[in-house]
Amino acid sequence: MGFEDSFTVNMTNKIVVCAHELCNDHWLPFTNFDLLVPPFDVGSTFFYKKPSNGRSFLDIVDTLKESLSRTLTLYSPMAGEIAWNGVVLENQIHCNNQGVDFFEAVADVELKELNLYNPDECIEGKLMPKKQLRGVLAIQVTKLKCEGIVIGVMVDHRIVDGYSANMFISSWADMTRSKASSMIPSFGRSYLTPRSPIVYSPSIDNVFTPFQPPSNHDNDLCKEDDQYRLVNRIYYVEGEQLKMLQSLASKNGCRTSKLVAFTSFLWKEVALSMEDSGENNETCNVVVTVDGRRRLSEGEGKEKEKLMASHFGNVLSMPYGSKNPQELKEMPLSDVAIEVLEFLKTATTKEHFLDIIDWVEEQKPQPLISKAFAGKDMSFSMSAGQRFETMDEIDFGWGKLAFGSCHVPAERKDCFVMTMGSPINNEDWVVYTHMPKKHMDYIEVHASHVIKPLNADYLNI
């Protein structure tokens, strides 16, 4: 099947959608977890076939705008902006209902013609809105030539992590189907405040660090070769290959998880690419993001568990492992997996997340960053999208989701990988990468049995 990368998209309308019910203008301070997130955006795309109920595109768009307005009443920060609060002398979330930019568009391409393997060509700047000066959220709804529909959502990462973004989109989908939101978000701050007195383990210094902006000299030293340009790509991994990686990553009868196995595989493959390029003296870092909601509620009863499950914002830690390429090259996958499990061990406890809150409090007002990304080493983060809603549950009422994915804006400089469930087979994965072109080209050649460029055949579209 041929792909169409050169299609055109025409914007037909742009409006500002505000919350249906006005809330009091108020300021919401960032939590200490929010303060660990740099100022960049993250997106999601949702692809649907021609509506099964025969509704017109204009009717669907009108319904989406109306339900979005009602959803913003529940999620007031999403209709606000990040601004300087002169009273407390810090940036905060200003919940002022200034609204969300909502774009309507038409594209001269069919769903099956989209080259989903290459989001830089088929999504970036076409099916995904650019978040402009207004607020923290932008949405684009696009009608395809086959009458399929694409919804693109771009949001400021300082407001939400993946869990919270999914919570918002699920609520929007619920309300579009004329249902009550399946979850009411919590914006409480009292349950994420530091302890008194502040106390934390020195191990936090191995996870996060104060951010030092690079000097002009450092920028001059950055690789400018096109081969190291960060590119977005999407792959398909079949369940049998995941089981094979699990088997290779397991040792002494102890079976490791699919995520740990795949993380170990990718860490080793990136290292092999570095070694192949003569980068033996450099370091290869892998970060695994860990959600703290469940851990922070451990041992505190059902009410705290419900409160943390509904918390809207960021609640992430970013532990990482660091090895040089030669070390990783010589290690069997089972030993690489042991390294991954070792650095994850300290970041999967309640105490670790309480320590983060206290550590950030002591560092204020310095900007902070994951330590793995503080230097010039090759570093990439792994995130597991499987913990979010299943594909079937992002249902706006006109048909089953054909495909959904995260999206990383091309201008972001951090390397990122997200694993997601397949929309057609629970055993398979879809993997989104924002990585140096050189490394992904190498992995496509040397691990073609594991990762395969995504195409419409894998999605039955």
Strand order of the largest sheet: 14-11-16-18-19-10-20
| pLDDT < 50 runs, ≥5 residues | 217-221
Approximately what portion of the residues adopt beta-strand conformation? 15-25%
Head-to-tail CA distance between termini: 12 Å
> Rg, please?
22 Å
Please give the share of residues in helix.
25-40%
Put simply, the count of helices is 13
* Number of beta-strand segments: 20
Helix/strand-derived class? alpha+beta
The residue-averaged pLDDT reads 93
Biggest sheet statistics: 7 strands, mixed
User: What is the general shape?
Assistant: globular
Name the descriptors.
alpha+beta; six-stranded mixed sheet
Topology:
Elements: E1 9-17, E2 26-28, E3 41-48, H1 57-74, E4 81-85, E5 90-95, E6 100-107, H2 119-122, E7 137-143, E8 149-156, H3 162-176, E9 208-210, H4 216-221, E10 230-237, H5 239-249, H6 258-276, E11 284-288, E12 290-291, H7 293-296, H8 301-309, E13 316-317, E14 320-323, H9 325-330, H10 333-345, H11 350-363, E15 368-370, E16 378-384, E17 401-407, E18 415-421, E19 429-436, H12 437-446, E20 452-453, H13 456-459
Parallel strand pairs: 6-7, 11-16, 16-18
Antiparallel strand pairs: 1-6, 2-5, 3-8, 3-17, 4-5, 7-8, 9-15, 10-19, 10-20, 11-14, 12-13, 18-19
